[in-house]
Amino acid sequence: MKKAVLALAAVSSLGLAACSVNKVEDNSYTGEILFSAYEGNNLKLTIRKNNCNGLDGQIDTFTFTQPYDSDLVVGTCVRVSQHEQGVVVDNISRSKSRIWASRSGQ
C-alpha cells in the first residue's frame, strides 16, 4: 500500500512539474479593474497590471467594444489577452458555475 501511494505521489508531482515547465508565453496578463464606464458603444476599462495581489503595479487604460458584461466590475480580477482580433478581458475571480448560480438567485 505504501509503495502504491508513493508511486502515485511521484507521478502526480512529475505531472505538475511538467505543466509548470511547459507554460506557454502568450500576450496576456492578470490585473484588477480600477474603473469601468461606458462611452457610447464602447466599454472603457482602467486595469492595474498587478497579478491581482496588491496595490502596486503598472496601470493600463484602453477602450474596446464589448457588449454589456455584468462580470466586469470594479475590483474584479481579470485576464487581459491581446490578439490579432483585439483585446479580450475575462473575469477570473470566480468560476463559470458560480457566475450562473449568482444570476439565478440560487
Automatic annotation (TrEMBL):
PROSITE patterns: PROKAR_LIPOPROTEIN (PS51257). Residues 1-17 form the signal peptide. Keywords: Signal. This is Lipoprotein.
